[in-house]
């Protein structure tokens, strides 16, 4: 990935508060496709922004005991449109990415990203504007991260919160309470869905689908042996494709899908030899074929421990819903 940081040092990005970094990005083959590559870049930009603005190298952070501590993803939200969405990005696209940090104390941090085509810059990220999600030429991304470390060597279970030495956050702005993601991800953790009940215009698309996914050590782990945060997106897509096939749909329509909204709450990690049990439920809009909501719950099969919860709003007919 090649990123140009426009505001050298990142301090302020025009705001003067040391909370914003801007990037000009050329989309390369390793950054896009029908996979989780672009999500991985979004995560890297979160880590880079924190490293740039918080006096802490997120790629090599340690706690007071000298143990490695990682800026783990707890809540990931991507909001898009049929005109501008993650699966629609391709080689040679030029993007402008604004990233702004918000203070959530010494153990957590929130990053907001706005991703637009080159030349469509909208200025510094303002929460009131961001949470309207009104620009069809923008991909809006929320990342809520927590600093964690292993509680015992060699295990990816029972990770514990642990802030790195020197992490600076007091200079960052506070997010207005009405936009805090805490209520949203607490709901997902407790209800195993981001849905607050089903809208009355939704009907089941198919019976619940249950799948087993063995973690693949040659593909799914990151450089420190944890289940990579972007792998969760790949696993969800893997399950969604099997739902697609259960419905008798072909691969071409899967590749043409548009994900308008994707929320993911990370509740745990898993060891390299684990098997994940995935449950998938889906509903379509009554009288609106192709407008679908999918809920995915990922558990560790042997222990029953919940690892992740995700809810997606999908247009299964892709570009046929350009007016959505």
From TrEMBL:
One term of GO molecular function: acyltransferase activity
Keywords: Acyltransferase, Transferase
Domain LnmK N-terminal residue range list: 23-194
InterPro entries: HotDog_dom_sf, LnmK-like_bifun_acyl/decarbox, LnmK_N_HDF
UniProt entry tagged with the keyword Transferase: yes
Keyword Ribosomal protein: no
Protein's name according to its UniProt entry: LnmK family bifunctional acyltransferase/decarboxylase
Species of provenance: Sphaerisporangium dianthi
Classification lineage: Bacteria, Bacillati, Actinomycetota, Actinomycetes, Streptosporangiales
């Amino acid at each position: 990935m090649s990123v140009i940081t426009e505001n050298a040092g990142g301090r302020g990005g025009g705001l003067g508060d040391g909370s914003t970094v801007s990037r000009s990005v050329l989309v390369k083959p390793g950054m896009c496709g029908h996979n989780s590559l672009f999500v991985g870049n979004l995560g890297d930009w979160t880590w880079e922004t924190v490293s740039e603005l918080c006096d802490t190298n997120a790629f090599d952070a340690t706690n007071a005991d000298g143990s490695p501590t990682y800026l783990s993803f707890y809540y990931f939200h991507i909001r898009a449109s049929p005109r501008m969405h993650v699966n629609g990005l391709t080689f040679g696209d030029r993007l402008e990415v604004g990233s702004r940090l918000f203070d959530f104390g010494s153990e957590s941090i929130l990053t907001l990203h706005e991703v637009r085509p080159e030349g469509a810059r909208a200025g510094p990220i303002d929460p009131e504007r961001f949470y309207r999600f009104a620009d069809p030429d923008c991909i809006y991304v929320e990342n809520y991260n927590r600093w964690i470390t292993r509680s015992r060597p060699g295990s990816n279970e029972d990770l514990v919160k642990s802030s790195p030495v020197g992490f600076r956050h007091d200079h960052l702005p506070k997010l207005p309470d009405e936009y805090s993601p805490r209520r949203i991800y607490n709901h997902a953790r407790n209800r195993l869905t981001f849905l607050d009940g089903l809208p009355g215009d939704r009907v089941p698309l198919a019976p619940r689908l249950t799948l087993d996914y063995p973690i693949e050590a040659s593909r799914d782990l990151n450089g420190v042996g944890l289940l990579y945060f972007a792998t969760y997106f790949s696993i969800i897509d893997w399950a969604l494709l099997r739902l697609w096939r259960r419905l008798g749909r072909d691969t071409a329509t899967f590749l043409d899908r548009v994900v308008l909204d994707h929320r993911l709450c990370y509740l745990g990690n898993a060891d390299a030899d684990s098997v994940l049990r995935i449950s998938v439920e889906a509903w379509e809009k009554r009288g609106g074929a192709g407008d679908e909501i999918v809920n995915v719950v990922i558990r560790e099969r042997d222990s029953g421990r919940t690892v992740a919860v995700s809810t997606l709003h999908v247009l299964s007919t892709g570009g046929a819903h350009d007016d959505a």
